[in-house]
Amino acid sequence: MNILLINHYAGSDKYGMEYRPYYLAREWVKLGHNVTIVGASFSHLRNKQPACREEIVDGIHYVWLPTNSYKGNGIGRILNMGLFVLQLFIRQNYILSDFVPDVVIASSTYPLEIFPEKLIAAKYKAKLVYEVHDIWPLSPMEIGKMSAQHPFIRIMQTAEDYACRHVDKIISLLPKAEEHYLEHGLAKGKFFCVPNGVVIAENKSKVQAASESSEECLRQMDNWRRDNYRIVIFAGSHGKANALDVLLSAAKYVQSRTKIVLLGDGPEKEALQEKATNWGLKNVSFFPRVPKHEVPLYLEKADVAYIGWLSRDLYRFGISPNKIMDYMLAKKAIIQSIDAGNDIVREAACGISVPAGDENKVAEAIDKMAAMPLEKLAELGKNGYRYVTQNHDYRVLAEKFISYIR
User: Fold this and answer.
1) What is the CA radius of gyration of the chain?
2) Residue 356: which of 369, 343, 373, 374 has the closest Cα?
3) Are 171 and 195 in contact (CB under 8 A)?
4) In the predicted model, what is the mean pLDDT of residues 249-265?
5) Whether residue 203 has pLDDT greater than 60
6) 226: helix, strand or coil
7) Which CATH number does the domain 201-391 belong to among 3.10.450.50, 2.130.10.10, 3.40.50.2000, 3.40.50.280?
8) Mean pLDDT over all residues of the chain?
9) Which among 147, 145, 155, 110 is positioned nearest to 130, based on CA atoms?
10) For the Glycosyltransferase subfamily 4-like N-terminal domain, which residue ranges apply (predicted)?
11) Mean pLDDT, to the nearest integer, of 365-394?
């Protein structure tokens, strides 16, 4: 099968996020399919931007369409989207040349690309699949508080409605989203869920020795363990969506001998550090961002891993966070502060779930975990590992994705 996957923000191990298109495509290539991924030359999600127009990575043909760079969510990002979509219209012969797709996968976060992708699918009599990462334009409306009457939102809503009426399948990361798409015109029986996944063998092989900058932080964690502290870690971006201010507030009420580590960087880090200083939080430490392959070194030394989200009605459609799966793969017991349509931590029996934004419940969960014997924490970690390897291996998910298309 010839698969054309179009994802504005597509990345790879070489460039960084987002990884899902790369991991799925790599498995499809192993299964004997031919895959072309089309992405923008600039994405704010990547650690590194491609310096070429085309390349082959692990058997995947990448085509990078030139777009402007930008910062933040202003006019620069909108221009970047517009340039990418425009080129999908006018550069189809260049993108495909001698490649005739059997399926076209519309995989970007926003739905605007569906119009040129529908033309491509019709031209080659290919199936058209809409892969949903976030529900747009509902996400910027509910999280960003944008009005339904905003011109940007109205354009995106038109695109989503068009997609629901014209695609052959919708494949969503969100398990509870079917009703939403049925309301917007999708026919019954066209919705399937393929959640985010993990690469099991690669996760083990890519753990490397700590860099010089990491050794001091890791030694500090070793010292805490020797002093019989329990370590709770958050590893990831310090942004508003992660609700880390709730974790800091909870730290004020934690009674146990616990150290809370925030590993990473992000737009909210400076404000969080200032807040921790003003509150005199001696049980909270901020560690710098480290390469992806070093994160397991930190998780290994922690006892519990934490994830929190803002309380948003949008999450009623379910969630599929990579962070939870990374924690499970590291065999960590998990504290989750999220209100969502599904509860992966409870399903996997690998930790404690508390309501989003409830600092007292988060503090109680930390104290409860800290009081558990190490054997019990290890048992919870093993439950999570068993769950994620059985349900979220990208080798299995890639096969499911193809079977749903067929």
Assistant:
1) 22
2) 343
3) no
4) 96
5) no
6) helix
7) 3.40.50.2000
8) 93
9) 110
10) 16-197
11) 97
